[in-house]
Amino acid sequence: MSLLATVAAQVAETSSGSTGEQVLFWIIAPLAVIGALGLVTSRKAVHGALFLAVTMVGLAILYIALEAPFLGVVQIVVYTGAIMMLFLFVIMLVGVDASDSRVETIRGQRAAAAVAVVGVVILLASVAGRAALPDPAGTADAAPEGNVYGIADLLFGRYVWAFEVVAAVLITAAVGAMVLTHRERISRRLSQRELAEKRFREGDPRQAAGLPPPGVYARHNAVDTPALLPDGTPAESSVSQVLVARGATRPPEEFAADIDQIGGDAGIDEAGPTSDDAPPGGEPPGSDARGVAGPSGPASAGTDEDAGDNDQPGSGDGGAAR
Amino acid sequence: MNPTSYLVLATLLFTIGAAGVLLRRNALVAFMSVELMLNAANLAFVTFARMHGNLDGQIVAFFVMVIAAAEVVVGLAIIVMIFRTRRSASVDDASLLKL
């Protein structure tokens, strides 16, 4: 904070000569305007949010140049840090691809809006330009001990009542958001036991113990890689359906071809040094025999099958290397 | 530096935000445009605080930020709720009350 204060003081000193602040302004102001225009014109909401973040950071820098370092920091922390992240969260929730349709629903609305906007710009800018505004007095006299001390004096002195009311508003907003997004549960919540029984009665009993996770028995554990069943075939159900719908996974048959090729190479490599670790001849029949009752087995798995499952990863690796 | 250039910048940002509210159909973008308008008003407040040589403008800008945060919380909750029921974030689709 003291660093910012010294920066603000330096900027204020140079602002008497006014060149430093002018350079800063003419760098930041176009960026802020570009960010604002980007927000309005960008087709996707995510891009608009990022453009708006640029504008807000630019405004924070201008606040610091305007002898308000506290507001500059609050602008970055609250606006770009909290509010824009909240926006991004909601954009991700609503859907990143929710882009606007460019169809005019009211005829002539766009032209009318453009005319109105240009009119307002001309009106306000001409008022601001024609007003005989004095040179800034600077806040050094109002806050002799520094900006933060001056703001704290006012906030907890003259404006303490407004401060308390704002606290009430914030709590009301938080409660309101919870009430708005609360969903009433219509049916009774199923217990874990009922869920398990339902899964056995209605679902595929082979998947009753859960789907195989991706990458198990496979060459690597990336989520887009299907698990290998002990007989060497990839398990399509082990990859998330979201990834499949996005087309982010490789098709299983291509993957299977890849596995065979890798396995061939690895079999040559491993056959030399450690023949007892992964015997290429003896392993495949065992893993094939296991393949029927392996991962598809846990629904009917007895105790002796569990012992077999403990052996499974080793033979599974052999199957992958086959 | 004379406050005029800051005020013109604030004017530009405010009108661009107003244009966004008028032109965009996506509720989230319209909402972000409202935030842009609030920020432009804040810039004018801070500029005038410096021109007059007191801190009251900065205090007002601070309160505007707090109220904007509260508004964002409630507004985004409403948008999420509308999206949940209508599967759309467009302001044109929320027209059930229209005759």
Describe this structure in words.
The complex is a heterodimer of chains A (322) and B (99). Helix content of chain A is 64%, strand content 1%. With 322 residues, chain A is mainly α. Chain A has a two-stranded antiparallel ribbon. In chain B, helix 2 packs antiparallel against helix 3. The model of chain B has no long low-confidence stretch (mean pLDDT 88). Chain B has helices spanning 3-23, 27-52, 56-86. Chain B is elongated, with a radius of gyration of 17 Å. Helices cover 79% and strands 0% of the residues of chain B. Chain B starts with a helix and ends in a 13-residue tail after the last helix. At the A-B interface, helix 2, helix 3, helix 4, helix 5 and helix 6 of A face helix 1, helix 2 and helix 3 of B.
Show unreliable segments of chain B: none
User: What is the global morphology of chain B?
Assistant: elongated
- Helices and strands of chain B, in order, run as HHH
What is the overall shape of chain A?
A: elongated
User: Order of helices and strands of chain A, N to C?
Assistant: HHHHHHHHEEHHHH
Total number of strands of chain B:
0
What is the strand content of chain A?
under 5%
Kindly report the oligomeric state of this protein: heterodimer
Overall pLDDT metric of chain A: 74
SS strand fraction of chain B: under 5%
**Total helix count of chain A?**
12
Helix content of chain B: over 70%
Instruction: Determine the mean pLDDT of chain B.
Output: 88
Which spans of chain A have pLDDT < 50 for at least 5 consecutive residues?
265-322
Task: Provide the structure class of chain B.
Answer: mainly alpha
